[in-house]
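WARN no homologs supplied; continuing
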Amino acid sequence: MNKETTLEDFLENQDPEVAEIVDAVAGQSIPIRHEIPHRRGDAGTQNIYGEDQKALDVWVNDLLTHKLIETNSVYQVVSEENPKPILNPGGEGEYTVAMDPLDGSSNVKSNNLFGTIIGVYKSRNPAEKGRKQVAAFYKLYGPMITIVLATEDGVYEFAKARKTHKKYFLINEQLRFPEPPKLYGVGGNPKKWVPEFRYFVDLLRDRGLKNRYGGSFVGDFNQVLKYGGFFGYPALLDKPRGKLRLVFEGNPMSFIAEKAGGLGSTGAQNILDIEPREMDERIPIYIGNMELISELEKLFTVCKDAREQY
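OK structure emitted
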């Protein structure tokens, strides 16, 4: 592909229904950006997890859900902002879309990075294993609006053009995690990290990796994808299952990571191989360069074996 390849050109060679789903989300970038200054406060409601919703969270969720269902390729949308799947009223469509409509929404108030995370399944089951995704992508609202899209044949990045709502141009293709890794970003209160994770982070520091953490999975992952490294929202002493959700965040981002030569893990298991037990299931997430994730898994295994021995 050449530098003049548009997202529209690229999607012509993809499954038409998947292309329609990607296009439905991509086409809302400018309306969402225009709405940001007007919806920076709280919505006065809570999501299904008891978390206060931001006004922009609710508005973006409703907008994207409507646009996705409108394609008629989508049978249902599952979102962390909805208590249950939103079904196509006509019963049409063979695809399930799982989404975090506004990842990092707490960053809106401070005008820092946030985005949208999407996983696409050719299935009517609302809670499939992540490995059954046929595509996954995220949209990042930064200095540029970009879409990073993973399909079966690799990872591609598109940047929003100046004037039109839908025009994106290909800026990177076959993205891979660079070597050697340069960055790490980790969430959670360090005082509540499990000891083996604290030790692993010390190893990263000792190797000269720089800490970059902004409170948005999309933004933090995007940096790791571009520079190589590690992102983690770990198991905590008081929250052993961590904070992030398997279906809405872990699966799509792990699919993208794996297509870019990396890996997503709970520390004990490949995220894409987990059978979801419930829609709101939380898991520890460690994601990035394959060598780093494999090293983390070995460290966790050694520590677990030592605890069991004594």
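The mean pLDDT is 91.
OK
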